[in-house]
């Protein structure tokens, strides 16, 4: 294997091993020693790729951000209406997180940062704004019931998605996150969508790996 | 002040000072020294009341449980229908938490335990079961739309309430929690309630301290 590929493979092995440890034990209680043992690597190999445990954690959080950028682009490319895109992105992100420990670890690390350091760089506000733009766009198209406040819908969806992933993580290691996120969507979107949107049928998102 | 009252006052002073510290810094980064400095007490006074930092944290979590027991009893005594009682309990608990650092600290400590120790004594499952009994009872009375699954509603409400309090805590020190929890209720309950319940008008809960 060329040297560049080998370096890439080692970096991925570190990320995967660290993700397994962070996912199970959280940031504070994950030791570099355990990560190295799991990856079968030396400290030297580790420090060639990452300056610290914090740097690996940062890379894992970054993966999660990349996932969302990818999902946004994918649903834009499909030409989905805004509410259907929201439904699809929430559902797909849950499917991917349930299946991939690297994404899941990013979620947990983010959650720990959010709980542990209130006030610090706040991703919630950013997320709520992003989701609100989709809902507002739906309103402009006539896909919302009269009087629906896009920002309130965004706050409700972001709260429910955060809570769903934390509870799912704490109770089933995220196995039921796909089901939980679809329940959230099914209990909120019909409350705010106009019959025009509901009748269009465009909101159909494939069921999760385990069905509805 | 009689000795018993003084002991009670000291215990409350410790709880309050610890709540302020936990609320701001979380469990791990709160030191006993900071708690004592805030309360103006010696280590001896502290250890007379609590064997450890963990014991104070446990007492604060217990306060939150007592709040819910009290709210349940209060809404039962009012003879509210189950959905109205749910609405009232969620809204009132948010009002009380926003106003009282002792309750807020309990919430944060609980959240940290939940995030930090997945699998360990799980309060989520207990909460979801409790909320589901209210929703199921509403169904038996004809207050739900046909086909509504009480457990799915309970999971959605618990997720959204947990997420709302974490986001509110991280962004506004819980100041907007009363508003956020009412938004959640307004975006979920009308989705599942029958027109019989909606027309009964019994779901009216007083607005939070800051209005709707």
TrEMBL record, chains A, B:
Signal peptide: none
Keywords on record: DNA-binding, Transcription, Transcription regulation
SUPFAM superfamilies, A to Z: Homeodomain-like, Tetracyclin repressor-like, C-terminal domain
Ranges of residues in domain HTH tetR-type: 8-68
Superkingdom of the organism of origin: Bacteria
InterPro entries found in the cross-reference section: ArpA-like (IPR047923), CprB_TetR_C (IPR054126), DNA-bd_HTH_TetR-type_CS (IPR023772), Homeodomain-like_sf (IPR009057), HTH-type_TetR-like_transc_reg (IPR050109), HTH_TetR (IPR001647), Tet_transcr_reg_TetR-rel_C_sf (IPR036271)
Matches recorded under Gene3D superfamilies: Tetracycline Repressor, domain 2
DNA-binding region: 31-50
GO molecular function annotation: DNA-binding transcription factor activity; transcription cis-regulatory region binding
Protein name: Transcriptional regulator, TetR family
């Amino acid at each position: 294997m060329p040297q560049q590929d080998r370096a890439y493979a080692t970096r991925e092995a570190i990320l995967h091993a660290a993700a397994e440890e962070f996912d199970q034990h959280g940031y504070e209680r994950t030791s570099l020693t355990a990560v190295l043992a799991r990856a079968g690597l030396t400290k030297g190999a580790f420090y060639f790729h990452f300056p610290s445990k914090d740097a690996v954690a940062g890379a894992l959080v970054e993966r999660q951000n990349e996932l969302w950028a990818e999902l946004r682009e994918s649903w834009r490319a499909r030409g989905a209406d805004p509410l259907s895109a929201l439904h699809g992105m929430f559902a797909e992100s849950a499917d991917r997180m349930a299946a991939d420990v690297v994404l899941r670890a990013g979620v947990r690390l983010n959650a720990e940062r959010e709980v542990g350091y209130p006030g610090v760089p706040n991703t919630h506000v950013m997320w709520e704004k992003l989701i609100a733009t989709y809902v507002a766009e739906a309103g402009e198209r006539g896909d919302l019931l009269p009087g629906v406040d896009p920002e309130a819908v965004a706050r409700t969806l972001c709260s429910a998605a955060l809570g769903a992933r934390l509870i799912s993580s704490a109770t089933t290691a995220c196995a039921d996150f796909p089901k939980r996120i679809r329940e959230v969507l099914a209990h909120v979107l019909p409350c705010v969508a106009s019959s025009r949107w509901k009748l269009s049928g465009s909101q159909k998102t494939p069921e999760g790996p385990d069905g509805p």
